[in-house]
Amino acid sequence: MAKVVLAYSGGVDTSIIVKWLKEKYDYEVIAFAADVGQGSGELDGLEEKALATGASKIYIEDLRKEFLEQFAFPMLQSGALYEGRYYNGTAIARPIIARAMVQIALKEGAEAIAHGATGKGNDQVRFELTVKALAPHLKIIAPWRIWDIRSRKDAIEYAQKAGIPIPVTVEKPYSMDRNLWHISYEGGILEDPTRAPSKEMFLLTRSPEEAPDKSTSLKISFEKGVPVALNGTSMGSVELMEELNRIAGENAIGRADLVENRLVGMKSRGVYETPGGTILYFAHKELEQLTLDRETMHFKEMVAGKYAEVVYYGLWYTPLRRALDAFIKSTQETVSGEVELKLYKGNITVVSKSSPFSLYHPELATFDEDDLYNQKDAGGFINLFGLPLLVDGMLRKTWQEELEKGK
Fold first, then answer.
1. Into how many domains does the chain fold?
2. In the annotation, is 123 catalytic?
3. Is 94 a catalytic site residue?
4. What predicted TM-score, i.e. pTM, was given to this entire model?
5. Which residues, 6 or more positions from 155, have their beta carbon under 8 angstroms from its beta carbon?
6. Lowest mean pLDDT among 169-178, 284-293, 295-304, 341-350
7. Both 167 and 96 in a single domain?
8. pLDDT in tens, 83-134
9. Catalytic hit among 175, 215, 257, 358
């Protein structure tokens, strides 16, 4: 019997896919679940459930450390934000999940992998591009693109008829995706952008109204752009992220409600909680302001936009991402130091920042008398910098029209 490895979460879609794969292809279904920090509640009982619904076995792998250190933290170093607001929490987890699936497929001698991503979403692209890059011989099965089930309601009815227990009901149809970096909510009642999400939905963050009336101080230490300590205490990546999520969440940091442009061409609404990641991005940027020269910093801001697209579009295993990483890694050589923050009811304020590689020179920046900067030099600089404007004004006299407008 041929084998297929299924990305399995125990949710509505993957719960029914096990049975569907066996019925349609007569496959031996091997389920795979990655622990990327979604919480023990989502993994509890997963093995029993997978086997009960027809899987021959299930792999459950703890990928939390690798997820942060090989994927999330490099993205943090890049400064990538998709469309200026989305911290790519779902997107950045897909390459490591798909990579692990490929490794299991090769180990088991499977001929195919399958996933529960819909034909309208981004995840189908992220999963499948990873498979194409790492194991192009593997067949890819995407049930949502070929079966007769057309909606979440149909999927729920299929599960109920087959006696498959599911965690989502017709009355509460929005879906969630959680990992150490974030939680996303989408679909169902959230598809109406005029409708505010209920406060009961949020799991990681308090609302500003519920946050403490007293501010919280926090100091983050970085080494080469990677967070390594909180409040002077060195921590492993997983422990640090869990603690940062807790502190940020208590202070109402990290909620976002946005309508984004999916890769497939449509707009969709997503509600996100990224408490620890929001703070890390803020602190990392503050430290870069001290340690990066102007031209590198400005160019890196352009790179960040492209990097965000690379992650969002599922292009992690590409020459472009590797090339961008090489540039970003070189910029992070001096991004070491400490940033002290104050958190209060959803707001982040920088208190202080320091680095042994700081380019900030008090004697240069001062408005008092100094011996390093000759202010007379500025006149010649302005004359040369403004020479194109001077020539344009002399020859074209475009300034006359602008002056007339101001009358």
1. 2
2. yes
3. yes
4. 0.91
5. 12, 13, 16, 149
6. 169-178
7. yes
8. 999 999 999 999 999 999 999 999 999 999 999 998 989 999 999 999 999 9
9. 175
